Amino acid sequence: MRHAKSDWDDRSLSDHDRPLNRRGKGDAPRMARWLHSIDSVPDVILCSSATRTMQTADLMLPLWENRPKLTVCESLYLSSPETIFNLIGEALQSTSRLLVIAHNPGISSITSHLADQSIQMPTAAVAVFAGQDAEADQANRWQYQTWMRPKALPSLDDTQTDSQSL
Length: 166
Known about the structure:
Blueprint: H1 22-37, E1 44-48, H2 51-60, E2 69-73, H3 81-91, E3 98-101, H4 106-115, E4 126-130, E5 143-148
Parallel strand pairs: 1-2, 1-3
Antiparallel strand pairs: 4-5
Helix pairs in contact: 1-2, 3-4
């Protein structure tokens, strides 16, 4: 997953410290609900240490009844596809349902590599893969399932609020 839309208004902030904007704060919970709807709630989240990725995770976590373990990875901040690949491999030794929240261009590159097709990851987009005992060095054993971005989701039902657990 790429982090939700960030705010560029405060030029005094470093790139690492940029928060989410209003749209990003709405998109993250929408994607959490979508992951739940396709039975893809993770057990573990690997999250970049940047403010915008942490806020993305923080907005998603309360919506899941069984909250995933959140692991902050400094090395995911502006990471290369190889770094993401290696972190995925390490995490898959102890879990089978993983969500990585990171940045472009790395997240689009690793997604495209694993899917064996070009996939651009706009903000808050999620790509889903499935595999059986797939180690990081066995990417060919991962099956690309689907991809979603917030703009492609139908409008939310007004009766479902962001504070409701799924």
